[in-house]
From TrEMBL:
The keyword Calcium is assigned to this record: no
Gene Ontology MF terms: ATP binding; protein serine/threonine kinase activity
Name of the protein this chain belongs to: Serine/threonine-protein kinase Pkn6
Biased composition annotated in UniProt, kind: Basic and acidic residues: 384-393
Presence of the UniProt keyword Transmembrane in the record: no
Location of the region described as Disordered in the Swiss-Prot/TrEMBL record: 328-393
Low complexity bias (residue ranges): 357-370
Pfam families (alphabetical): Pkinase
Amino acid sequence: METFGRYELLRKLATGGMGQVFLARQKGPVGFQKLLVLKRLLPHLSEDQDFIQMFLDEARIAGVLNHPNIAQIYDLGDVDGVFYIAMEYVQGESVNQVNIRARRTKGALPLGLKCRIIADAAAGLDHAHQARTPSGRRLGLIHRDVSPQNVLVGFNGNVKLIDFGVAKAAGKLSQTMVGTIKGKHAYMSPEQARGEELDARSDVYGLGIVFHELLTSQRLFKRETDLATLKAVVGARVPPPSELVPGIPKELDLVVMKALARRRDERYQSAGELQLALEDFLLSERLPGTQAHLTAFMKDLYAPELEDERFATEPTVIQYDPRLLREQAAAPARETSSPSATKVGAVQGPVQPPRLRPTAPASAPPARRAQVVTHAPRGPGNPARDRSEETED
């Protein structure tokens, strides 16, 4: 087991363009210990001031955010010149994976709980947008990467917004030039796809895309190429969710379509407004959509894992990742010349549960220059087939 400063690195979760992400444990006196996620800047980037600035910006931005729907930053520092961020460990899944599992095992994720997840994510976003420095200066923070993989649902029902690695704040934090794209193309606002100046309403649009896809289980703007995706973001028709899934209330259509208005001044002017609209909808429809309902559903949905005694008592060793099972099942059997080689899927010794997905992905690779898009190709909107299980790019 590797020791990094005062942390034990239990397992590598991911490696990205800027850093490595580990499940780690902080140990202290009289038996104190805490599980967390540690993001460490890649060693060869430790001399690159631009990358160091981007890495530190993420910690500074997230460090001023203290909200139950935002994963917390615990520590920032360096060990022998290698910078790191220690952050909250969220035991859960992305909203997309929760939706997929619910469809497969329960038939569907209840409508009220879909609204609860998005309302809670909107609450976290609104807090970030309103955040101020300790001196009282407003940060003007924009997440810029609101996507399903950055909205986590904990097994305890808590919804957490994560990964401010490409966020932008005004003032002293490093700036991103207008015309530079950061974020996932299929979850961008039209103004973001055009490389224009952004504000909080761009994040509202991104969350609107996540909500639309959660309701319909279909990708909204994802196309075969990045350019085609950007063109769809700018100009493709957005169908109301009820057009794709009969039975969705028209009142909810109105909420979704307002969040997805292409003109910023026609959208909800804050994430808080979107949250309030969803809370009002839940009340008017009398849908079971409280956090208590979400907690009960998640405990039932992940009951096999949560009821495992080892999972409850030794989370540093036993973690679960439904995606790993799918990858193992889909992987072709391979043999090597090594006498100890084993075909994928073969069992040797006790079967170990798969690991949990990384909850704090490494920061995005360096930004690409935007291809300025001014129109979308004529024709129908998103393809009719169910693309909800494609990668979230």
